[in-house]
Amino acid sequence: MPARRGARGAMMIGVRVLIVTSGSTGDVAPYTGLGERLRAAGHDVTVATHEPFRDQVALAFVPLPGDLREILPRARGQDGKGSGTGPRALARLLRIARPLVAELGDGITAAVRQTRAEVVLLSTVVAPLGYQVAEAAGIPWAGVFPQPLFPTGDFGPVLAGGRSLGRTGNRWAGRLAVAAARPLYHGPIRDLRARLGLPRRSLRRLQREQEHRWPTFHGFSPSVVPRPADWPPSQEVVGYWWPARTPGWSPPTEVTDFLAAGAPPVFIGFGSMAPGHGVRLAEPVLAAVRAAGVRAVVQAGWSGLRAGDDDPGVLSIGPLPHDWLFPRMAAVVHHAGAGTTAAGLRAGVPAVPVPVLADQPFWARRLHDLGVSPAPIPLSRLSADRLAAALTTVTADRRYSERARVMAARLAGEDGAARILSWLADLHDRRTPRPATH
Fold this sequence. Notes:
The chain has about 450 residues and is α/β, with parallel strands linked by helices. It folds into two domains: about 5-240 and about 415-430, Glycogen Phosphorylase B (Rossmann fold, 3-Layer(aba) Sandwich); about 255-410, Glycogen Phosphorylase B (Rossmann fold, 3-Layer(aba) Sandwich), CATH 3.40.50.2000. About 40% of the residues lie in helices and about 15% in strands. It has 13 helices and 14 strands. It has helices at about 30-40, 85-115, 125-135, 165-195, 205-215, 255-260, 280-290, 320-325, 340-345, 360-370, 385-395, 400-410, 420-430; strands at about 5, 10-15, 15-20, 45-50, 60-65, 120, 140-145, 215-220, 235, 265-270, 295-300, 315, 330-335, 350-355. The strands form three sheets. It has a seven-stranded parallel sheet with strand order 5-4-3-6-7-8-9, with helices on both faces. Strand 6 (about 120), helix 3 (about 125-135) and strand 7 form a beta-alpha-beta unit. Helix 2 (about 85-115) runs parallel beside helix 4 (about 165-195) and helix 7 (about 280-290) crosses helix 11. The longest helix is centred in the middle third of the chain and has 30 residues, at about 165-195. The radius of gyration is 22 Å and the shape is globular.
């Protein structure tokens, strides 16, 4: 492999890096940008994730078994009739995720062997399994997490909504959330270690050892979530990883024509949430847009949302890069997933968060605390009146857009990939024998 100039200016040889992730679009897109940065620095990068995302990855690709779209519709809160957060909702989400987790271990093993990976970067869902595979292969690993999952006194468990219970309560609740997730991985890890020829260990012991042996890099800005002071040194906050743009992409003419035809519209889309409920959501969305007197771009997402086909002030669209679309919006209404939240902040436009489950209420609350959005509207409470009021507030009050622009300027000065490039360079330096001196 040719020598390239490393993060500190020294000549280095790139390493074979495997990035493994599982989930929805927001769980894949940031790693395409991270991977492109690593490749530009001279590393040989492969992304392993589910087959439906192959077309979104311009890097080398290895498929993983499973598809979240077969699981997510059964999670609490997707139908808008109940809460998707809290202990019961988290427990159900963990239960329905078991079939996916059970088959991921062998997929990660095959990917490591196929790519002859020298380093593995592991996203949230796959990390507990990937640690075992990397241990068996004798290669370094690192977590690359979009959410702050390690227990802290600063906020409550992120996957349960992140609501604060006080510093002591937050720490205890965080530990309970970690313990609650262990049954999801216990059987798959036990069986995987047996297949890999690794000694049997308790899951708690493995978790304690493996989470601290190598670093976990968190891909969000410290301006959005400051690094908790009570985290151990292994847990780092490095900044966002931005999705890579598909080579040769250009915007559809119907979209550019719509944008040129009037004032900046608002964006409304719920990403991977509410699959199959697009028809039900269309009525309150369209009514809210008309009541607020704004133009709108409505994105289908996994719900199939489509609205206003006979309304010249509303355009329904399919997939479009948020880094191109969001800066052209007056505001963005979204489900507050980690990736979409980041895209809105990067664009410097205010938000109306409509969280559904898992970490989304945490990010929605964070947007409100940062002053770039009004109070979140949980999907279970979404109505035309509430959405219209929020749209009116966020587009009429300039303080929201001003604060959003300030936050965007902060993010523009950060480089979330730089720390990982530096870590890879350190690994290379430690593994490269020094020339003998005479």
